[in-house]
Amino acid sequence: MRTEMKDDTEVEVSNNGYFGEVSNSSFSSLLASKDRDFLLSPNGAQVKVSDLEGKVVGLFFAANWYPPCRGFTQILVGIYEELKNSDPQFEIVYVSSDEDLDAFNNFYGNMPWLAVPFSDLETKKLLNRKYDVEGIPCLIMLQPEESNKEDGAVLRCGVELIYRYGIHAYPFSKEKLEQLQEVEREKRENQTLTNLLTNQYRDYVLSHAEQRKVSVASLVGKTIGLYFSAEWCVPCVKFTPKLISIYEKINHELAETGENDEFEIVLISSDRDQSSFDSYYSKMPWLALPFKDPEIKNLAQHFDVQGIPCLVIIGPDGKTITCHGRNLINLYQENAYPFTDAKVEMLEKELEEEAKDFPRLVYHEGHRHDLNLVSDGNGGGPFICCVCDEQGSSWAYQCLECGYEVHPKCVTTLGRHNNVLLGR
């Protein structure tokens, strides 16, 4: 816990993202100005700021020009409408970062909640500064005043909670978050492949290759990859052929060595219609949950999947090995199997040894600057390879002038010129 000064108000800030007791910060002092005591409603009417007293209020910082804001807004609209039907003591206020009034009107026209007028730049600046809004979309949840408190807690991670828990995060209080975290902890401890992939209506997954249903019970004891993907997603379409190749290589090697182990993948589809699902899945050699199965949403929330493609690896005991299977595939290909910490540690050590022979400087064809060898410890870190468009970490060749980065494996030596290794 630490104490900070924000707008001349003393605030306690805890490590879990909450502000504690905040004095002198009613909704009127936050959202009204000396010239305005109202907010805009979608139909153009003015709503008194004082009408928010006693409600749970979300301050939604976003802008039309930023695609992640548009995507999250669609999700938030559904949550808002469902909550308003069950509890009218909930409201959202849009705090715009739009570039002009037309952009504001176009974006706000898709929202069913209130908004700070676009013209009130000063209030928007004060709110951004007060809550340290460094990126959008951002959803700050404010609790209503209570009789035994000056104010409730302020929750900063509303976007994350909506993605992770949906409507179940309401009323977005510290107590509710602790309850959800405890439920998650228990689910992780009691996690099995069966309770992940089945429900009371279905105990199977699909196998299009054999036109049959495969019992989830028959998969118990195997290493399973849950592949969150969709045909409309360009990175997914690029990654899927690589994953198919790795999947086939892993199972071929397991069959050759006679190891008592099997690797299977289950598609968890985010496709928007049945025909897209059928078309996409027809290219894959593995299993799948049925299109629009209710467990798809539950799995995405359980593993906190915020972007696709995503490959979650489940071990033979039904516990999660890693949620970063895609990254491990990109780094180590089939050698990543069985994706355990011990195997990754061994591969990292091998890569460290190989890196001793890597040239420290390369010239990469198609880029105008020399590339320097970097690692996590000397300026490197997670990146997207500019050659294969896939994730990478650990070692990379990086342009110190413009940030261009490539996997070492994506650089092929061409020879040397003036003591610099040439690559392409």
Automatic annotation (TrEMBL):
SMART domains: C1. Residues 29-164, 182-356 form the Thioredoxin domain. The keyword Amino-acid biosynthesis does not apply. Its EC number is 1.8.1.8. It is an enzyme of class 1 (oxidoreductase). Transmembrane segments: none annotated. GO terms for molecular function: metal ion binding; thioredoxin-disulfide reductase (NADPH) activity. Keywords: Metal-binding, NAD, Oxidoreductase, Repeat, Zinc. It catalyses: [protein]-dithiol + NADP(+) = [protein]-disulfide + NADPH + H(+); [protein]-dithiol + NAD(+) = [protein]-disulfide + NADH + H(+). PANTHER family: NUCLEOREDOXIN 2-RELATED (PTHR13871:SF7), THIOREDOXIN (PTHR13871). Belongs to the nucleoredoxin family. This is protein-disulfide reductase.
